[in-house]
Amino acid sequence: MDEREHGGPACDAAVVLAFSILGKRWNGLIVDVLGGGPRSFVALRRAVDGISDAMLSDRLTELADAGLISRSVEAGPPVAVTYALTPAGQDLVPVLQDLGRWASANLALSVEH
Amino acid sequence: MDEREHGGPACDAAVVLAFSILGKRWNGLIVDVLGGGPRSFVALRRAVDGISDAMLSDRLTELADAGLISRSVEAGPPVAVTYALTPAGQDLVPVLQDLGRWASANLALSVEH
Questions:
Q1: What are the E-state strand segments in chain A?
Q2: Cβ–Cβ of B67/A108 closer than 8 Å?
Q3: B1 CB near a chain A CB, below 8 Å?
Q4: Domains and CATH numbers, chain B
Q5: What is the pTM of this model?
Q6: How much is the average pLDDT of A38-48?
Q7: DSSP character at residue A79
Q8: Higher pLDDT among residues B76 and A110, named by residue
Q9: Residue A6 in contact with partner chain B when CB distance is under 8 A
Q10: Cα(B104)–Cα(A18) distance, integer angstroms
Q11: N or C: at which end does chain B have fewer Cβ atoms within 10 angstroms?
Q12: Residue-wise pLDDT tens digits, A89-110
C-alpha cells in the first residue's frame, strides 16, 4: 500500500483529547449508562457501582464541560436533577461500545472483577 | 427505558486500559499509519510528523508490549527492521478511525494545526 495521507496531527490531537476525557475511570461507563436514557444522580450512582458521590459529581461536571451530557433541573419539592446525553454524547455511545468490545477481547486485564 | 445491565466495571476497566495506551500522544497515530501496511522505522518517523527517534522508539516498544504491533528484523546488511500491526492492532484501526471522526466533529480543539 502506498504511504497515503492520514488524519495527521490534527486528527491525532482530537483522539488524544477524546482519550483525555474518556481515559479517566468512570467516564466511559457513565456515558454508556446514559446511553440507556436520562438518569437522576441517584440512579447513576446506583448504576456506576463503587463510585462516590463526590467523584460522580466531579465526573458529571467534566462530561458536561466537554459537551457530552446535559443537566436539567425541575423545581420541586423535591428538586429533581436529571442527566442526559447531548447529541455529541449520543454519537459517542456506539464508538465506546466498539472500543470496549475490542479492549475486552484484546487487552490483558490485570484487574480482577 | 429500563435500567438494563451494562458492561459494568470489568468492561469499564478494559476501556480505561485501552485509553491508557491510546491516550498517549502519537500512539493512535502510529496505529493508524500502520493500518496502511508495515513500515520501517524511518518511514514511520516520516509519517508521524514531529516525533523524535527516542519517542518513536518508546512508543513502538509500548505498543508491542500491549500486543498491538510486531517487529521483524531481517539480517542485512543493512539490517531492516519493520513494524506491522498484529491482528489485535488491525481490529483496532476502524474503531480508532470512528473515534477520531467523532472527536474531530464534537470536541473543541484548542490546538491549532
A1: 39-40, 69-74, 80-85
A2: yes
A3: yes
A4: 25-103 (1.10.10.10)
A5: 0.73
A6: 92
A7: P
A8: B76
A9: yes
A10: 9
A11: N
A12: 999 989 888 888 888 888 875 4
Q: Is the dihedral of CA A92, A10, B95, A25 positive or negative?
A: negative
User: Which of these, A28, A12, A100, A90, lies nearest to B95 by C-alpha position?
Assistant: A100
Burial of B4 (0-12, 13-18, 19+ CB in 10 A): exposed
Cell 496505529 sits at which residue?
Answer: B31
Distance (Å) of CA B74 to CA B40, B79, B81: 11, 6, 6
Query: Please, what is the end-to-end C-alpha distance for chain B in angstroms?
Result: 42
Asked if B63 and B21 count as a contact pair (C-beta separation under 8 A), the reply is: yes
Q: What residue type is assigned to position B44 of the chain?
A: L
Is B64 strand, coil or helix?
A: helix
A59-69 pLDDT per residue, tens: 999 999 989 99
The x, y and z cell numbers of residue A60, run together, are 458529571
Highest mean pLDDT among A13-22, A69-78, B5-14: A69-78
Question: Given CB atoms, is A65 within the 8 Å cutoff of chain B?
Answer: no
